[in-house]
Design a protein that fits this description.
By secondary structure, the protein is α/β, with parallel strands linked by helices. The protein is built from 16 helices and five strands. It has two domains: 3-141, 3-Layer(aba) Sandwich (Rossmann fold); 173-365, Hypothetical protein af1432 (Orthogonal Bundle). Strand 4, helix 5 and strand 5 form a beta-alpha-beta unit. The two termini are 56 Å apart.
Length: 367
């Protein structure tokens, strides 16, 4: 037995026709080539098709109780059955019926009485075509999986490199050790509360929250362009030094933009650029670098501003002692409508106690 006939033997063909003569003719032609199931009505077909799904369905159109068009419409409503290849059998020879059948998803029409050799050849042709389509779908699926795995590997490498850059910046600034992890935690707390409370839901629902939280590690990456004499200075900065330090936001955004030109996963970098550029803007327009006001400031930047300022308040600096959680919370709340978005401050008030908890890594996976 040839490979071709062995393959065909494994194919299961259903034939539905209310005329016994037609079923007999089809059986005589096809039984040596395919596994056959012969049925006399659409209702009979619908009773058994879920138990044994055919590779091809030959379906008569003119049948009592339920015609072929009604049968294929029923199949189209079932996700498990809608892709079964269907060839209509019909004694009609009108264009309207043929168009209706093809519109419903039939592969072809075979007119009755059919020529046995032609019936066999057409079934062999369509089964081969269906098999080739399946092989192509499997190939594309495997190819997509390979591309996704390679892309994930590249993204993971990029994230590792970017994380290393962020840590290098933090190591240079001895006054802000642990700032990255802490602000990511505060950001997680705020974002989870916003999601639970429906705050700015229309915009937040479009975000990939885990990427946004990961990208927060780069919000101070622009400090890599600030000299050590300023970054490591003990004591208050001069006016000139303060103006230079303020440029770290623009420097950071520019660094991230340049990285994104040759990187995969630009969504991560888009979030990072927004946080780097805007985390020092103020609701009343007195912040930097662009002196944006109110909702002109991107929402992610407004959220990051709360996390960043809170951490600065509770952290020790050469020029100040750390505030207690209660003191820092009071300062943040007092900044509602001036420094911070009032809507976000309402969210902050509802979860402020969680800011002093140990970093909970499970918050990174809440969406």
């Amino acid at each position: 037995m040839s490979f071709r006939s062995d393959y065909q033997k494994r194919r299961h063909v259903f034939i539905v026709d209310d005329e016994a003569t037609n079923l007999k003719v089809a059986e005589n032609v096809l039984r040596n080539y395919f596994k056959l199931t012969l049925l006399t009505s659409g209702k009979e077909l619908l009773k058994v098709i879920n138990k044994s799904k055919p590779d091809l369905l030959l379906l008569d159109i003119e049948m009592p109780l339920m015609n072929g068009f009604e049968v294929i419409e029923k199949l189209q409503q079932d996700q498990q059955l809608k892709d079964i290849p269907v060839i209509f059998l019909t004694a009609k020879n009108d264009i309207e019926s043929e168009l209706r059948g093809l519109t419903l998803g039939a592969l072809d029409y075979i007119n009755k009485p059919f020529s046995p050799p032609l019936l066999l050849k057409r079934i062999q042709h369509y089964l081969a075509m269906v098999e080739q389509r399946k092989e192509l779908q499997d190939f594309n699926k495997n190819l997509n999986n390979m591309v996704r795995e390679k892309t994930e590997t590249i993204l993971q490498l990029q994230y590792a490199i970017l994380s290393t850059i962020a840590n290098l910046v933090e190591f240079r600034d001895v006054n802000t050790g642990g700032h990255i992890e802490r602000t990511q935690h505060y950001l997680s707390v705020l974002l989870k509360a916003m999601k639970d409370q429906g705050t700015y839901a229309e915009e937040v629902s479009t975000w990939k929250i885990s990427l946004l939280i990961q990208s927060a590690q780069l919000h101070d990456v622009g400090k890599i362009a600030i000299s050590d004499t300023i970054l490591k200075k003990e004591g208050s900065l001069t006016q000139e030094e303060t103006e230079i330090m303020m440029k770290h936001t623009s420097f950071g955004a520019e660094i991230i933009r340049k990285i994104s030109l040759s990187a995969y996963g630009t969504e991560f970098l888009n979030y990072a650029e927004i946080l780097a550029q805007h985390h020092h803007e103020r609701w009343d327009g007195t912040g930097y670098p662009n002196r944006l006001k109110g909702t002109e400031i991107p929402l992610a930047g407004r959220i990051m501003a709360i996390a960043d300022v809170y951490d600065a308040l509770v952290s020790i600096r050469p020029y100040k002692k750390p505030m207690t959680h209660e003191e820092a919370t009071a300062v943040i709340i007092a900044g509602s409508g001036t420094h911070f978005d009032p809507v976000l401050i309402d969210v902050f008030k509802s979860v402020a106690d969680k800011f002093q908890e140990e970093k909970d890594t499970t918050l990174f996976d809440f969406v």
